[in-house]
Design goal:
Elements: E1 2-7, E2 10-15, H1 27-31, H2 50-59, E3 67-71, H3 77-84, E4 88-93, H4 96-108, E5 115-118, E6 129-135, H5 144-154, E7 155-165, H6 171-180, E8 183-189, E9 194-195, E10 204-210
Parallel strand pairs: 3-4, 3-6, 4-5, 6-7
Antiparallel strand pairs: 1-2, 7-10, 8-9, 8-10
């Protein structure tokens, strides 16, 4: 199925699975999962924070062609907003189906040079990026440490990581752990206003930089 999503002045056409839940029992997906892995394929859903995260990206000032990695790309809306803002985006996800669909959506919207990478956070690669984007990735506390370990390897020394969150209770523990790991963390609401503390039930944007 196809869905049009308006972000700022841009309208994106997104190809989406007709029945996202079918991937929960997809034999190929289940066969690729390690026996001790709790991973579940939620990527086909357009998650709650994707739209406000994309809006935040669209309204920011970026340096053109800045190399950017999207983590947990899902169907690719956040990365599309980055591409439309002039960023050089590589879509990544643990699930190959997600990477393929996000890459397809990029091409369908005229972004032929978007990159694609199947990436397990527990096995970061040596490539580093000045900008890393992610959305709805801190809902499971077991992912917090692998995510921060990956950022320590793949985020450039003076780079920034933007993480959109729907206001989940787990965000506070992620922020606390990030600060213990020497990341500077700023919080903003959906209107770009600075927040002193995370809140529950409303979109918030976490901006992480490696501490100096």
């Amino acid at each position: 199925m196809s869905r049009e999503v308006v972000i700022g002045s841009q309208t994106f056409s997104l190809a989406l699975p007709a029945d996202p839940n079918e991937f929960l029992s997809d034999p190929e997906t289940l066969a690729s999962r390690p026996d001790d892995d709790d991973y579940a394929p939620y990527w086909p859903h357009l998650w709650t924070s994707a739209r406000p995260m994309a809006e935040a990206i669209a309204s920011a000032n970026w340096t053109d062609a800045t190399r950017t990695l999207e983590l947990g790309c899902g169907v690719g809306l956040v990365g599309l907003a980055g591409l439309a803002s002039g960023l050089d985006v590589t879509f990544s996800d643990y699930e190959p189906h997600a990477v393929q669909l996000a890459h397809h959506n990029a091409h369908a919207n005229g972004f032929d040079k978007a990159g694609a990478l199947v990436l397990d956070w527990r096995e970061p690669i040596s490539e580093r990026f000045p900008v890393i984007l992610a959305c709805d990735v801190v809902y499971d506390v077991s992912d917090h440490l692998p995510l921060l370990d990956l950022l320590a390897v793949m985020l450039e020394e003076r780079g920034c990581c933007w993480i959109g969150d729907a206001g989940r209770q787990t965000a506070a523990s992620f922020i606390e752990l990030a600060r213990r790991r020497n990341f500077d963390v700023e919080l903003h609401d959906e209107y770009g206003n600075r927040m002193l503390e995370p809140h529950v039930g409303r979109f918030q944007l976490m901006q992480l930089r490696a501490g100096r």
